[in-house]
Amino acid sequence: MLHGAGGTVMHSLVKNYIVKYFGATANIEVPLEALDDAAVINDIVFKSDSHAVKPIFFAGGDIGCIAVAGTVNDIAVLGAEPYALACGFVLEEGLSLADFERILASMQQTCLKAGVSIVTGDTKVVEKGSLGGCIINTSGIGRRTAALEKNFEVIRKFRSNLKARWVLDSNLRAGDKIVLSGTIGDHGVAVLSAQEGLSFGSNIKSDVQPLNCLIQRLLGEVGGIVAMKDPTRGGLADALNEFSEKSQVGILIHEDMIPVRKDVQAACEMLGLDPLEIGNEGKVVIGVVREKAEETLHLLRTTEEGKNAEIIGEATADFAGVAMQTVVGGKRIISRPVGDPVPRIC
Ligand code: MG
Fold first, then answer.
1. Ligand 1: distance of its center to the CA of 207 in Å?
2. Please, is 108 exposed, middle or buried when counting C-beta atoms within 10 Å of its C-beta (0-12, 13-18, 19+)?
């Protein structure tokens, strides 16, 4: 199960097996081996994602909205506007048509919110086993927008040597600020509660939501965004380590600036989980040139999706890797998690 949990074990499976056979692709602007959120080929951002969240319904969402939002967000964080999806269903024998319809309605709602259409797909049924109802693959395409061009115009005012045309994990430089769009850990704790039948005497809900419209606003109205990631499996810890490794820059974050709901923090303490390592489905981590950090934060805070946003840290040349200034005054190394502590969260 760790091989699918988004941490070091999964990264080595992908690198040592999948990239071994399909990597080394020539003439592809952002290829498979970049292991970014999506690929770019012929100026089209292209992404595929399988969704196997268990259970298929949980507080705040279901497998249908995750299937749409997950792929939409992976395309959006490269700076593209997603516009069409393909959807493959693998249904487990015994899934009720009422549940299937509930999932489809949820996908339709999420598509409307994100402004994307499902235009092709496939449906298979397999014998009763361990699917937990169904799994859904969504693939999608996205395109460049005027907002993305505007974003790069702003970056060029502050940085002359950036060659990238897309918002990539490898674009971060010392001095850039790290902005987080809201609270972390909500989704992982909501799904874990549903898996284990736990309730924390509170109202913890998944944050699952498409972020593409918000991201396009940030690119077009503020600009200066060099790197973005949706901190899904492996959480904020994994996302920041991806930035740090691919950009070859250190990242310092400040514990007191990281938004975590009190009930999520309490649930994590009870279960021995680190909110930094738990997956989210409706948050984005943004690397932005220092001069645009405050404006980015300001716009985020005027929106529903970003109302709890904070500037949580900065990229630095002082050290390699990711470190956190703790509230008690020390520094803690934030390493890449071995795997997300909660299985099958997306
Ligand atoms: Mg992603």
1. 15
2. middle
